[in-house]
Design brief:
Blueprint: E1 13-21, H1 25-36, E2 42-46, H2 83-93, H3 114-134, E3 138-142, E4 146-151, E5 156-160, E6 165-173, E7 178-179, H4 184-188, H5 191-194, H6 201-205, E8 213-216, H7 220-231, E9 238-242, H8 260-263, H9 270-286, H10 292-298, H11 302-308, H12 311-329, H13 334-345, E10 349-360, E11 367-373, E12 380-384, E13 386-389, E14 393-394, H14 403-410, E15 430-432, E16 438-444, H15 450-453, H16 459-473
Parallel strand pairs: 1-2, 1-6, 2-3, 6-16, 8-9, 8-13, 9-10
Antiparallel strand pairs: 4-5, 5-6, 7-14, 10-11, 11-12, 15-16
Bound molecules: flavin-adenine dinucleotide.
Flavin-adenine dinucleotide is lined by residues 21-27, 46-49, 55-57, 67-69, 145-146, 174-177, 404, 446-447, 457-459, 462.
């Protein structure tokens, strides 16, 4: 086909079976799954970055920026939980990551640097390419940004920022997470322009080592930023501000615990969940078992609980449970947590419960931010020498100032997800349009489905979605 749905003839259109928009972890894993399935197909992955399989998370170059789970928890093969452990054992045996020898634990318990995890993903993709090639299947990286997309019952058409047009039987939105800093709302506060990248060690090494660094947000990105500062030789005060002032807990390896949610499907509301979870944690502590054991059993049920919940219950969860879910569930890798705990103990890192209200003009070359401390009506200001924004992700696509989300909304091809988190889709990832119609040719996976499942971002979420979606696209599911 060489025409877009609006009838615009275009001689430069390239055809493929599946067009994957975004070549981070999601795009790479979906491509790998498609290549491994029987049949012959052409897959194009459109990704502006120079490498597939990395995205923001796995482009990390510092060894201290590690996964937040150990190798045993981070396999990209839903059928083999030991896949990463096996790959990593071979990688270390071949001389890779020699620093891992300083950690006297089995390979399955190592927390790999995210850059090395990116290599693992790329190697699994390369293996799938070799398998696919035997039946004539290919995957090609098209290095560009998709700026527009049209889709109907016949297929999908993409316009790229370099002027190319692509046509596919299916298109998949694997566009990942949009940092809050990219949104107009945050940009208008000036935060983006003034802030250092949390992962940019070389920029941090240009700071005065005694500089006072202000960090907005206290989640895992803050933990990475503290690792970066340490690596850069920073030895001055670090002031962290977040609404609730909660630090992520450290990830331990808790023993198995009874799957209490599977045993009691009557638990549905956030209130019931919290009540029972607290009871289970108290029980665990009374039995001398780590409280992380019962908590970790909840993970497998969170998608079901979220998708069954009413919007009122979801709002209750976001308002009352989310800060604690984030700090207790999204836990810190042990070495990074040790560093944060040490700096906190030395009084060099302070955490304050306060919301960021904007940047203040500053006359002396220093930075000043306006904050409102929790429980106080008045705002106040705090001065520092540098600022790091680790305040997270913009999940509301209406506020993402990128061409593709805006075009998809303008064309009515997508509809905001529950609570305006990401976009709406059916249980298998088929996108729902503004009229409520389920698309037959346009799909989404990973972080864009945040509103459908709440947790739709972690390695294991993305890996299982990639497998199921590939099967659906080739008609074997
Ligand atoms: C810093 C960081 C650390 C993390 N650590 C962990 C961890 O330890 N464990 C864990 O389980 N999860 C972790 N995550 C979650 C992680 O995001 C997911 O595991 C994974 O990155 C999601 O992959 P993705 O491909 O959907 O998104 P991304 O990795 O964000 O990739 C999306 C890609 O889409 C591209 N793109 C976007 N729009 C367009 C467009 N219009 N046209 C073309 N390309 C486009 C982007 O360039 C990007 O490369 C981390 C995330 C971050 C950001």
């Amino acid at each position: 086909m060489s025409q877009t749905p609006n009838g615009r003839a275009n001689g430069a259109t390239r055809d493929a079976d599946v067009l994957i928009v975004g070549g981070g972890l999601s795009g790479a894993l979906l491509a790998a799954q498609l290549l491994r399935l029987p049949g012959r197909r052409q897959v194009l992955v459109i990704e502006p970055r120079s490498e597939l399989g990395r995205g923001e998370a796995y482009s990390a170059v510092e060894l201290g920026h590690t996964l937040n789970g150990n190798a045993a928890r981070m396999s990209v093969d839903p059928d083999n939980a030991d896949d990463l452990t096996q790959w990593l054992s071979d990688y270390i045996a071949a001389g890779g990551w020699p620093e891992s020898e300083q950690q006297p634990v089995p390979v399955s318990e190592l927390f790999p640097p995210r850059g090395i995890f990116g290599l693992y993903v790329q190697q699994r993709l390369a293996e799938a390419q070799a398998i696919g090639a035997l039946q004539g299947s290919t995957v090609e990286h098209v290095r560009a940004e998709v700026v527009d997309l049209q889709a109907d019952a016949e297929g999908a058409w993409l316009s790229l920022d370099d002027g190319q047009q692509l046509r596919g039987a299916f298109a998949v939105l694997a566009t990942g997470m949009f940092p809050a800093a990219r949104t107009p709302q945050t940009e208008s506060s000036g935060l983006n322009a003034a802030a250092l990248d949390p992962w940019d060690v070389s920029a941090m090494s240009r700071l005065d080592p005694q500089a006072t660094v202000l960090i907005i947000g206290s989640g895992l990105t803050m933990v990475d930023a503290v690792v970066s500062l340490e690596q850069a030789g920073h030895r001055g005060p670090i002031e962290v501000f977040s609404r609730h002032g909660l630090l992520p807990h450290v990830r331990r390896q808790p023993p198995a615990w009874v799957d209490f949610l599977a045993q009691d499907p009557g638990i549905r509301s956030p209130r019931q969940l919290l009540h029972e979870l607290r009871r289970q944690c108290r029980q665990a502590l009374a039995d001398g078992v780590d409280w992380q054991a019962p908590l970790d059993t909840v993970r497998a049920h969170i998608g079901r609980l979220w998708s069954q919940a009413t919007d009122v219950q979801r709002r209750q969860f976001v308002r009352h449970v989310r800060p604690w879910w984030e700090s207790h569930h999204h836990r810190s890798p042990p070495l990074s947590a040790e560093l944060v705990a040490r700096l906190h103990g030395e009084g060099r890192l302070r955490i304050q419960a306060a919301s960021f209200k904007g940047l203040e003009p500053s006359a002396d070359g220093r930075l000043a931010i306006r904050i409102r401390r929790r429980g106080e009506a008045q705002t106040s200001w705090v001065a520092g020498d540098a600022l790091i924004n680790s305040s997270g992700i913009e999940y509301d696509w209406r506020r993402v100032a990128r061409p593709l989300p805006q075009q998809l909304l303008a064309r009515g091809l997508i509809k905001p997800g529950p609570l305006a988190l990401g976009i709406r889709a059916d249980a298998g990832g088929a996108v729902v349009d503004a009229e409520g119609q389920v698309a037959s040719r346009l799909f989404a996976m990973g972080p864009p489905l945040r509103g459908m499942w709440w947790e739709s971002t972690a390695v294991t979420d993305v890996a299982s979605q990639a497998k199921a979606l590939a099967a659906r696209l080739v008609g074997v599911a």
